[in-house]
Amino acid sequence: MAKNSLDASCPVARTLDIVGARWTLLIVRDLLPGTMRFQDLQERLPGMAPNVLSDRLKTLEAHGLVRREFYSNHPPRAAYALTDRGRELGVIVLALGRWGIRHLGGRLKRGLQHDECFRHLQQAADALVRRPVKRVKSGAKAIS
Prior knowledge:
144 residues, mainly alpha, Arc Repressor Mutant, subunit A, 3-stranded antiparallel β-sheet, 3 strands, globular
């Protein structure tokens, strides 16, 4: 996460300060279907270092997008779930996926990884259908 926003007055820049780091939206994508343990997230995101996953989860938790639930004290083990605020990002994740299919589909590498991405997107879409996102009212003004 950036120490200082590029534009503190811009909601897009402020949002990217939180979710714009590499891997973050993939974590959101994988949490859309429901609660996952740390090691399950590691398995679904090969190539992501455990310290990076831990850092991203802490950032998401600090901003109220993810909640951590301990299921073991010795050793400490936690599972993670999206909050309602975090689930709202599901719409954005799916929109990015659809954009990628439409505009990058011919350039996406075929094979297991490509199929896996479609499976993850389908799980996320199914989760949003089963439990639609409810708009959370905030103090922000609506854009006209």
